[in-house]
């Protein structure tokens, strides 16, 4: 299990871009079976989630 938290979707995308090589290595070591994204789901983030069959989005709790 990996839990990551970001200030906003731009920070999450920046992290993925910065760590792309590490994420590729991780995918060789383990299979990601579920991706949950919680919070303010921007259109770009929803498009990203929609591109992954394992991803599901959840709105921020109010």
From TrEMBL:
This is Uncharacterized protein.
């Amino acid at each position: 299990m990996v839990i990551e938290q970001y200030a906003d979707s731009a920070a999450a995308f920046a992290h993925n871009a910065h760590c792309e090589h590490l994420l590729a290595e991780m995918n060789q070591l383990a299979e990601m079976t579920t991706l949950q994204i919680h919070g303010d789901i921007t259109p770009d983030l929803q498009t990203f989630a929609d591109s992954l069959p394992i991803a599901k989005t959840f709105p921020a709790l109010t």
